[in-house]
Please model this.
Amino acid sequence: RRVVGWQGGSSHLEDLRYASRGLSKYLRQTDAWFLVIGATEYVRELARDGWEKCMVTSWQTTPIALYRRMTMNVGVAPLKPTRFAMAKSPLKVLEYQALGIPAVASPTVYGDWIEDGVNGLIAKRPEDFPRLLRDLQHDTELRAALIKGGRAKAAQYHIQSRYTEWITALRSVM
Model:
């Protein structure tokens, strides 16, 4: 079964609303399901005819429990272009990439993180989400390339590849 997933807390309501029309359109036009992890009440932000294609799970208390729930084929990371969103980190997409989940994200914050078409896809406008999700659904080579590129990007930020920077920082303040 094709599953598009999104995970987020209460500060992401405006972000999901920002992309909800496009996500609802994609759900109507395909056999895909939508997995919401975290703020489960956000399902109602999708068009009513998409509700029956939603699966929800509450927020998890540990990262491992969260990652076990992230069973989607593709992760979406919409961010409405606001001052608040500009202060966020690319953590959501980094998590998707580390888990081998291709990401479709807004350019806000993620435009500096994702190399479009290499380690993720950038939806320049909310209306781009359905087209990019369909591209991923039908293009297995693109999907494989994004998984490979995403994992490579995430590996650059793994503690084992950057531990010397942490040691240097800690020694400088001790």
Observations:
- The radius of gyration is 16 Å.
- The chain has a mean pLDDT of 89.
- The first strand starts at residue 3 and ends at 8.
- The longest helix spans residues 13-29.
